Amino acid sequence: MLSRTADHLFWMARYMERAENTSRMLDINSQGLLLPQTPEQEARAQRSVLRISELEESFAARHPDSDSRADMLDFMVADAGNPSSIIACLHATRENARAVRGTLTTEGWETINFTWLEFNERLASGELQRSPDTLFEWVKYRSNLCRGVMVGTALRDDAFYFMQIGTYLERADNTARILDVRFADAEPNSREAARQLEDFYYWTSILSSVSALEIYRKVYRDVVTPSRVVELLILNEAMPRSLLASLDGVCETLVKLRTGNSNECERFAGKLRADVLYADIRQILETGVHAYLTQFLKRVDELGVRVMRAFLMLPLA
């Protein structure tokens, strides 16, 4: 397969997954507003979304001196100038899909194209201002639908596997970011941090946002606690959106895409997976979840670069 075609498929899948996960992160933020908060806590919650997405500076440049939730939502959802906004991600998904339209199934292309068109209609109707939660649920639904159509109609060839590896890499990155929102926001060794980290309603919303609340109840059959949420979303191989499950998908897909240039990439992915597989939840909690996730995000980013070097970038003459 041509590197250019593989590149379009890889990024098409990544951007669709990114749009979904941005919706999940904003959904957590919305659910948090239903709980009693001081104005300072609410403002900190808005900033944490931007910080975890590494968009604080970009937001400040476009909205100086603003802690407004409306401005934050507009920036994260409808601002085409923000490359990580939902509208930018869905546009990039559609443009990458259009570039390889002949490689996709008719159903796959039509699902992506209709998602883009309807999203713009929903924005124009004022749904973001009127009912943001409804819009977030719709984005998650359409992402799941697009992925399901691809899985249900695509030939299992290199094109399919490049879509898969893009999805798994993005999912690993975004699950880590969603989990890190509260840990990154808490002030170390403070009573307020301890209270925040034990917030039952917050952790329930985290689980709901990654479609894991029912899974948690089946696995633990007990009250929701931060340590178990961390264990489920990092170490549980049977949890579809966990870090370990995402890395399983990356490693399995790399085997199917194996070439003479991919050995180093496979080894790096295998070592990262092994480090997560054999991690001890007690050690993660003692060392600090934020520190662990920060290091994980750096390594996943490096893995993405190695995948691009192995498969997507044309060799220099």
Task: Please give a structural write-up.
InterPro entries: ATP-dep_Glu-Cys_Ligase-2, DUF403. It comes from Caballeronia terrestris. Pfam families: Alpha-E (PF04168). By secondary structure, this protein is an all-alpha fold. It folds into two domains: 154 residues, no CATH class; 162 residues, no CATH class. The chain contains 17 helices and no strands. The longest helix has 30 residues. The protein is globular and about 55 Å long. The model has no long low-confidence stretch (mean pLDDT 89).
- Average pLDDT over all residues: 89
Q: What series of H and E elements makes up the topology?
A: HHHHHHHHHHHHHHHHH
Helical amount among residues, as a percent range? over 70%
**Multimeric status of the protein:** single chain
Radius of gyration using CA atoms only: 19 Å
Shape type: globular
Organism: Caballeronia terrestris
InterPro entries: ATP-dep_Glu-Cys_Ligase-2 (IPR051680), DUF403 (IPR007296)
Pfam family, one: Alpha-E
Protein name: DUF403 domain-containing protein
